[in-house]
Amino acid sequence: MQKALHSLKIQKRIAALSVFLLIAKVFAWFITGSVAILTDAFESIVNVVAGLIGVYSLYISAKPKDQDHPYGHGKAEFISAAIEGSLITIAGFIIIYEAINNLIHPHNIQQLDYGIILVAVTGFINYFAGAVCITTGKKNNSLALISSGKHLQTDTWSTLGIVAGLILIRITNLVWLDSVVAIAFSVFIIFTGYKILRSSIAGIMDEADTELLKKMVQTLNENRRVKWIDLHNLRVIKYGSTIHIDCHLTVPWYLNVHEAHKEVDAVSALVKNEFGESVELFIHTDGCLEFSCRICSKFECTVRQHDFEKKIEWTMENVSSNHKHHA
Q: In CATH, what class is 210-320?
C-alpha cells in the first residue's frame, strides 16, 4: 500500500510537470513556426493525457482488496500502460503525416536560437523526470510509473534529435531538414509505444515473466533445504505492484502439519527477503511418494525405500511443470 501511494505521489508530480513542459514547447513552436517543434509539442500533449491516466490508474491500484477484487486492483496499471503505449504510437504516425505535409508545403522558420534553447531545456528536464519515474517504478514494481518514465525519456531523445535538426537548419538554411528529423524520430517513438503496449498486454494476459522466474528459481536453488524435496507447478502473476506466487512444495510425508508449515514459512521468508513485501505467496504442500526417494537428499531418513540417485536441479522449465519430478 505504501509503495502504491508513493508511486501515485510521483505520478501526480510528473503530470504537473508535463503541463509546464507542454506550455514551453507550444511557445517555442509559436515563435519559430517549426513543424519539428510542433510535433514535439504534440507528443507532450500525449504526455499530459498519459500522465493523468497514470495518476488515475495508480489511485485505483492503490485501493485495498475487496470482495469483488480478491487479488487487488493492480491490473489497472496494465490498462493505463496499454492506453499510454497506444497514444505514443498514434502520436508517432501523426508526426510522420505532419512532417510529410511540411515537405510538400514548406514554410519559413524564424527565431531558431530561442526555439533551440527552450526545447533543449525541456528535453533535459524530461530525461531526469523519466529517470526518477523508472527508478521509483522498479523499486515499487509499478508498470504504470515505469511506462511513464520510458515515455518521458523517449520524449527526451526525440527532443534532442529535433534540437540537432534545428541546429543544422540554422547552419545550412536547409528547411527540409525540419521534416526529415521529425520523420526519423517518429519511427523511434512508434517503436517505444509498441514496446510499452506489448508489455502491458503481456501483463493483462498474465504472460510469464521469464526474468522474474529465473531469478526466483536461482534464489530457491541457492538456499534449498533438505526437506524441500521437490518444487513444481510454480506460477508468478503480477497485479500492478503486487506479485502473486503459487507453487507445490514436496516435503517428507511424515511431517505433521506444524512441521510442514515451518518449511512453507521458510520458503515465504526467503522469497519476501529477496523480492520485497509486495509478494503474495501461496504454497501447497505435498507428501513425498516412493519414487521421490531417488531424488531426495535427506540421507538420514529412516523410511527411505530407494537409494539416492541424483539431485534434480530446479530450472525455470521443470518447476513450471504440473507434475512431481522423477530421477
A: alpha beta
